[in-house]
């Protein structure tokens, strides 16, 4: 919604397009929902006095699993499609994708990657670890997946700034944040052991 806001303002001025219309038509981005959900969980955990890192660690492994099913939905809707490819699918029934062109099923590739991430996080979640490491694991894992797969996306409305898409910039920021949490939590453990 943020990257398309200038177009919304122009449409609103020219046609009377409302914010509710824009919200329904915008094609919301996963990263916005994820960031909003994490902030909501953090706020809620603080309000009820629950241990924030433990709450996040408990919830996070389910995120890539649910996201994997969501990407299958993207495939059936014909959105979030990939580049033209001989190994692709026709999305001629989709009002979004180009017709008459075989497009790489990036949605299914991402879904498979997300399932692998889910199983890795599930396995890692059974091990003893510092609270907060699961968030770092997810941010790094999904950030890498999304950054790479964005090179194979072909949908026009992703927003490109410089050499990368908006989602690639967000991915890079989340990878850096994940690395920070990973090493920050490791440093916290060393301090605890030393103290």
From TrEMBL:
InterPro entries: Lgt. GO terms for cellular component: plasma membrane. One of its GO terms (molecular function) is phosphatidylglycerol-prolipoprotein diacylglyceryl transferase activity. Its EC number is 2.4.99.-. The chain crosses the membrane at residues 28-56, 68-84, 104-123, 135-154, 160-184. The keyword Cell membrane applies. The keyword Membrane applies. It holds the Pfam family LGT. It comes from the Bacteria. Keywords: Cell membrane, Glycosyltransferase, Membrane, Transferase, Transmembrane, Transmembrane helix. GO terms for biological process: lipoprotein biosynthetic process. Belongs to the Lgt family. This is Prolipoprotein diacylglyceryl transferase. The lineage of its organism: Bacteria, Bacillati, Bacillota, Clostridia, Christensenellales.
């Amino acid at each position: 919604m943020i990257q398309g806001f200038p177009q919304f303002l122009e449409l609103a001025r020219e046609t009377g397009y409302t914010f509710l219309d824009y919200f329904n038509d915008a094609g919301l981005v996963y990263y916005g929902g994820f960031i909003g959900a994490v902030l909501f969980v953090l706020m809620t955990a603080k309000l009820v006095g629950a241990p924030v890192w433990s709450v996040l660690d408990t919830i996070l492994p389910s995120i890539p699993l649910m996201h994997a099913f969501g990407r299958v939905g993207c495939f059936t809707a014909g959105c979030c499609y990939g580049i033209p490819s001989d190994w692709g699918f026709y999305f001629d029934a989709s009002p979004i994708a180009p017709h008459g062109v075989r497009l790489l099923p990036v949605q299914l590739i991402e879904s498979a990657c997300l399932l692998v991430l889910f199983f890795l996080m599930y396995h890692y979640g059974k091990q003893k670890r510092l609270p907060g490491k699961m968030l770092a694991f997810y941010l790094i894992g999904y950030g890498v997946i999304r950054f790479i797969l964005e090179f194979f996306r072909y949908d026009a409305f992703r927003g490109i700034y410089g050499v990368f898409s908006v989602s690639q910039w967000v991915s890079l920021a989340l990878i850096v944040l994940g690395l920070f949490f990973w090493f920050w939590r490791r440093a916290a453990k060393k301090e605890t052991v030393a103290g």
